[in-house]
């Protein structure tokens, strides 16, 4: 297993209260090496909290997170992160932004340039290397952010609603591109979204979360014979969408 969450609970202290707030409760989940897992759940169910724990920026109150069998104790270059609004350095060109992670790894200058150029090509930004972030569209900036996380070759890609701020068309083309990159690179991907369609389209498995305290409600396996053509319009896609919608809806309606 690449990633293992073992009975993970995350509590936050509440001001003026002796009782903490439980954001995640007893979450256990495994992600295989090379798997693409999407995580879907209602707003506030603890998705970002879970991702923060995987990045190592936060630590669980109870339970353990393991990467390749080793407990996660902090951030590391073995995990690349892409957020909804990725803060590119405005004073650096697209190429120099992608080079950033490689500097941290002390890759020699010439090699850095070549690698950064390669990853810009991979995300479809050939010819935009010398543009500054303000000269790029939102979708292009997000491509730079993805290229930047890919460039230092992390085994795991952690993505927190990376396409949420984009228009539908750009989102779909980036989803396709991400799948292509994932297939080409074999990385393990954990992708957070609150879009059911996005979760079904991208994930080999979709983990459905419950509202606070966040738990894993169910993990749905998704498989398509082919992703060619209008996958979202197929009956099979509709079945998965409905199954996940029902799981989320069951959670939203309080049981008497
Ligand atoms: N640092 C913090 N201190 C206190 N409470 C927090 C903190 N971070 C998150 N929370 C709470 O934990 C819960 C889960 O938040 P989180 O951001 O993980 O949800 P989410 O599922 O990512 O939501 P969204 O889809 O709206 O982004 C929320 O109720 C939030 O208020």
Automatic annotation (TrEMBL):
MF terms per GO, please? ATP binding; ATP hydrolysis activity
Which keywords accompany this UniProt record?
A: ATP-binding, Nucleotide-binding, Transport
Matching SUPFAM superfamilies: P-loop containing nucleoside triphosphate hydrolases
* InterPro entries cross-referenced by the UniProt entry: AAA+_ATPase (IPR003593), ABC_transporter-like_ATP-bd (IPR003439), ABC_transporter-like_CS (IPR017871), ABC_transporter_ATP-bind (IPR050166), P-loop_NTPase (IPR027417)
Any keyword Ribosomal protein?
no
Q: Which residues form the ABC transporter domain?
A: 3-236
Coiled-coil stretches, from where to where?
none
* Pfam families, A to Z: ABC_tran
Keyword Ribonucleoprotein applies: no
Cite the CDD domains for this sequence.
Answer: ABC_NrtD_SsuB_transporters
Q: Which domain of life is it from?
A: Bacteria
Q: Which PANTHER family match?
A: ALIPHATIC SULFONATES IMPORT ATP-BINDING PROTEIN SSUB, TAURINE IMPORT ATP-BINDING PROTEIN-RELATED
Question: Protein name, please?
Answer: ABC transporter ATP-binding protein
């Amino acid at each position: 297993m690449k990633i293992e969450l073992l009975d993970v609970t995350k509590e936050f202290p509440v001001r003026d209260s002796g009782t903490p707030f439980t954001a995640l409760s007893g979450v256990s989940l495994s992600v295989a090496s090379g798997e693409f897992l999407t995580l879907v759940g209602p707003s506030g169910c603890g998705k970002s909290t879970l991702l923060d724990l995987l990045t190592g920026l936060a630590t669980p109150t109870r339970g353990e997170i393991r990467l390749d069998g080793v407990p996660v104790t902090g951030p590391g270059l073995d995990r690349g992160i892409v957020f909804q609004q990725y803060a590119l350095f405005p004073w650096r060109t697209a190429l120099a932004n992608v080079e950033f992670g490689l500097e941290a790894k002390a890759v020699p200058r010439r090699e850095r340039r070549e690698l950064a150029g390669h990853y810009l090509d991979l995300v479809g930004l050939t010819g935009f290397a010398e543009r500054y972030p303000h000269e790029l569209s939102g979708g292009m900036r997000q491509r730079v952010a993805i290229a930047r996380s890919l460039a230092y070759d992390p085994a795991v890609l952690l993505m927190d609603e990376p396409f949420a701020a984009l228009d539908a068309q750009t989102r779909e083309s980036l989803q396709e591109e991400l799948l292509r990159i994932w297939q080409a690179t074999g990385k393990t991907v954990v992708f957070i979204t609150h879009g059911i369609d996005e979760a079904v389209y991208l994930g080999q498995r979709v983990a459905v979360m419950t509202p606070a305290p966040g738990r894993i409600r169910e993990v749905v396996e998704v498989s398509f014979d082919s992703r060619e053509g209008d996958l979202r319009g197929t009956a099979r896609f509709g079945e998965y969408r409905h199954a996940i919608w029902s799981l989320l809806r069951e959670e939203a309606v309080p049981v008497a």
